[in-house]
Amino acid sequence: MNTIDRDSDGLGPDFPGAVGNALLTVLLPTHYREAIIGDLIEQAEADVAPRDGAAAARRWFWRQAVVSASPLYARRTTTEVTMTRGKWITLVLLIVAGLVMALDPNVFSSSPLVIGLVVAAIAVPVVAGLISGNVHTLIGAAAISAVLLLTARLTSGLEIRWYAMAFMLFVILNLGRIFQRRLESA
Amino acid sequence: MAKQSSLGDFEQLVILALLRIGEGAYGMLVRREIEERTGRVVSLGAIYATLDRLESKGMVSSTIGGSGSNRRGRAKRFFTVEPPGRAALIRALNALDAMRSGVTGLEPNAEVGP
Q1: Which band of pLDDT confidence, cut at 50, 70 and 90, is reported for residue A94?
Q2: Are residues A74 and A130 in the same domain?
């Protein structure tokens, strides 16, 4: 008996769901997001689900979404990102904070998991701040970063004061930049 | 003399795919066309990044089109090759043909060999 899940609904009527949509909003740039998600759903249901089943089609969809993100962001980074004064200040502050943190023996004497969490917590807002001016992306990046930092704190009891300071600066600078832009366009 | 835009290898493939598909070409069909005809596996992101680059050069244009239940209501983005894109492709192919012409073993459909 074939045990592959071959339900007739394919990916399901609500796919990718509320959480999936939120993830895709962060993962894919705005300009082509709708077209890419639609294309992937269409191909997953037309090609992958009939051949390998619905579960495999869902895995294929997410794998393709992740793989598709990097060339699109690379394209956006090389063409659309202009380094404003606010972005340079954000970048420099975060690099300085990262270096200070790296020199703090408490962080890198921790477990690999904690090191990974802290590095990711820095990388997420840096990347988001550099490639996006979208308030939802920045808030999402700040939230992800805060969760990573909190997880590092809870799992290690480590004081990450330098990074916490840089994180607050990131939030203040980027929100300030967005409000300034809105005031200018009002 | 004005500088003419040149096309990279993958840009040529994408424009050729658009021309082969004709009306109603969109990302998924372009990807499928390239994979089926060349055997080259490409991500949809690479296709859209290339289409975006070509669009910024004025070589292709795009319009938002129909959606449907098989796409959960997500609109398609249809692409069309514009005259500068067609001209750039012809120049690229002519240049390749001119360089290939007369070189033994590089005739069309030549064996790749070991």
Answers
A1: low
A2: no
Instruction: Say yes or no: A179 and A140 in one domain.
Output: yes
The reported pTM is 0.62
Q: Quote the pLDDT of residue B19.
A: 97
| Cα→Cα distances B13→A23, A94, B31, B89, B94, Å | 31, 41, 10, 9, 15
Q: Is residue A4 part of a domain?
A: no
Confidence (pLDDT) at A184: 47
Residues A123 and A180 in one domain: yes
- Give φ, ψ of B8 to 5 degrees: -80, 170
Ordered structural domains, chain B, with CATH: 9-92 (1.10.10.10)
Q: Which residue of A has its CA nearest to B56?
A: A79
Residues with Cβ within 8 Å of A176's Cβ and at least 6 positions away in sequence, in order, are: A86
Instruction: Name residues 32-91 of chain B within 8 A of A (Cβ).
Output: 32, 43-46, 48-49, 52-53, 56, 67, 70-72, 74-77
Contact B28 A67 (CB under 8 A): no
A68 contacts B44? CB cut-off 8 A: yes
Please say if the pLDDT value at position B112 is more than 60.
yes
For residue A10, give the chain B residue with the closest CA.
B70
The mean predicted confidence, pLDDT, of chain A is 73
**Tokens at residue A51, please?**
């051949």
Query: Among A7-11, A149-153, B6-10, which stretch is predicted with the lowest mean pLDDT?
Result: A7-11
Contact A71 B70 (CB under 8 A): no
Q: B76 vs A41: CB contact, 8 Å cut-off?
A: no
Domain count, chain A: 2
Of A15, A43, A79, the CB nearest to B28: A43
Contact A15/B at CB under 8 A: yes
